[in-house]
Amino acid sequence: MLLYFPADAVHRTLEQLATGFPGSKPAIDTGGKAMMKSQDRNPVFRQVSARMQWICDDPGALAKCGLRLLESRDFASPQPSVSRLWPRRYRVGSKVTDDERPSRNR
After folding, report:
1. Per residue in 43-91, pLDDT tens?
2. Handedness of CA 34, 45, 11, 69 (dihedral sign)
3. pTM of the model
4. Residue 103, by phi and psi: left (phi above 0), alpha (psi -120 to 50) or beta?
């Protein structure tokens, strides 16, 4: 839900989480510029009256909020336990796409 708030509010919230819950491992959804620009063309997002505002092209940059990135995934590179459930045509396509992109999984 953080995607729907302005960047300064998101950063403040993440700083508070990092300070208030040291050592915790929050899972956070982020979205880049391309996702924000396409939300009005996406049939799912068009149905939602709220617009996403927070842009985060580099999840590693959240370190300035006191968070440490353990892993970063996108739709083309899901966890193996998830991708095994996908139809073969999607699994093969995601491997080709993933091979062409530098790994962000840490």
Report:
1. 988 999 999 999 999 999 999 999 999 999 887 788 888 888 888 887 7
2. negative
3. 0.73
4. beta
